[in-house]
Hints:
Elements: E1 5-10, H1 14-25, E2 30-34, H2 40-45, H3 47-66, H4 80-105, E3 108-111, E4 114-118, E5 121-124, E6 127-136, E7 140-142, H5 156-159, E8 168-172, H6 176-187, E9 191-196, H7 207-219, E10 223-226, E11 230-235, E12 241-245, E13 250-253, E14 255-258, E15 262-264, E16 297-299, H8 318-333, E17 348-350, E18 356-360, H9 363-368, E19 373-380, E20 394-401, E21 407-413, H10 417-429, H11 434-438
Parallel strand pairs: 1-2, 1-6, 2-3, 6-16, 8-9, 8-14, 9-10
Antiparallel strand pairs: 4-5, 5-6, 7-15, 11-12, 12-13, 17-18, 18-21, 19-20, 20-21
Helix pairs in contact: 1-4, 1-8, 3-4, 3-6
Amino acid sequence: MSYDVDLFVIGAGSGGVRAARFAAGFGARVAIAESRYLGGTCVNVGCVPKKLLVHGAQFSEHFAHASGYGWSMPEPSFDWPTLITHKNGEIKRLNGVYQRLLEGAGVSLLNGHAKLLDAHTVQVNEQTIRAKHILIATGGWPHIPDIPGRELAIGSNEAFYLPQLPKRVLVVGGGYIAVEFASIFHGLGADVSQIYRGDLFLRGFDQAVREHIRDAFTEKKLKLLFNTDIVAIRREDDGSLMATLADGQEVATDCVFYATGRRPMLDDLGLENTRVELNAKGFVQVDAQYVTAEPSIMAIGDVIGDAFAGKAQRLSLTPVALAEGMAVARRLFKPDEYHPVDYQNIPTAVFSLPNISTVGLSEQQAITAGHSVLIFETRFRSLPLSITQDREKTLIKLVVDADTDRVLGCHMVGAEAGEVIQGIAVALKAGATKRVFDETMGIHPTVAEEFVTLRTPRD
Length: 459
């Protein structure tokens, strides 16, 4: 049977582009289709623009700290349209970078919606392409629950294009995106309330981290409403919104921002024309090599969700999708260089203010896994804040196996936590022990040196 291409990729996000580029570099004939924007969620409505907004939000704290260092200035003001315009310019530049990367690798780029006609055939606009292998990398999409007034709420996609900064924002959710946008809106000057249906946000993170960020948000005057949810939203006569909560309480706001999960983007993909199966949560089911129930079709990234084929818990993160895309390209077209993705000790960060970053096991996870643990933990006011009025503290925590001395987890809440934990993730990947940490010289004075100066276990 003859094919037009060796690999057809549906979705030009991080994982799809990585698979396409490297497959082409290995000599394969590759085509990729994208109906929205090159770079996917991360570049357009995720990691990159979010980090730019976080940086913008930090300036309010920088201005507040300046007087402690002898700087005086007029009262600062913020202009949301300026930030969004500059953000849009950077995203446009990155879209062009992705296009050049694909073209430079020899990948055929098709602009349009791709639909599966059968196990080897894809239709894009009026064109039909036969492919030996097909890779689904269509990512996820924000989910807003079906409640009365849901059309009045926004998700993360819309938040990046608001014409003006709302004066009051009600953030709904307790995961990465909710916590990050609560910080963004608050830092830029909005009056922020955050609602989460559970006892405490950031489920799955170390308990000390969750409690520390709760206390930090409370100190910053963010309003936190736990153990409740919105049951309806209505528009008031003055144009504002009124959210009715499960307990009967009503909260007036100008914007209801939902970050309560993402669904796989499978709309009109044509899966019914194949044997591809979905799991109980609606994500594409794949085996350990990302192959679906249809042997010619694979899937990677956010579209496969957080767990698959009984393997270790995966995280829906850009670097994970990149690694999966590389694994697919190597297995198919460069098998001598293939190795499976290792889902252990994946570092991650929540770009809230203050930042959160972690790698390895939480204290609770380590105990559940049967480890006898030693906990090293400290909270302190960092040197840059010592001559300001800011009372914010940094959290540093190590989880250590008491029997082997191996460091099982590292957790931090504080400025530039992601930058610090990235380096420490290398140590955990290499199997570093607490003794290795103890014998490593610190860089003084830094916050990061606390990871190698912790000596006394917590009681």
